[in-house]
Amino acid sequence: MEFNFHSLNNIKNMEIIDLKLGAKIGFIRDLKINCDESKIESILIPIQKNSFFGKMEFIEIPWSDIIKIGVDVILVDTKGKLEGDN
């Protein structure tokens, strides 16, 4: 079995692509980590919303929805959850 390792910096610079829609979602802003189990629960991607106070909103994608981490992109299956947002 071959393991590929990526630094957090490299992963944050990879574009997130929805495999089903073929759409670019954005870039990872943050990770949700379960410290008790030492594993990543989900990735957080900022979305552009016009807000007077500038509060940033996020799309949360569970780590289990990541299909493949490639050289410069991450393929995810959002199971159609983003179709209404685009």
Automatic annotation (TrEMBL):
Gene3D superfamilies given in the database record: PRC-barrel domain
Domain of life from the UniProt record: Bacteria
One of the Pfam families matching this protein, by short name: PRC
Residues annotated as domain PRC-barrel: 5-80
PANTHER family (UniProt xref): SPORULATION PROTEIN YLMC-RELATED (PTHR40061)
The protein's name in its UniProt record: Sporulation protein, YlmC/YmxH family
Originating organism: Clostridium fallax
Lineage: Bacteria, Bacillati, Bacillota, Clostridia, Eubacteriales
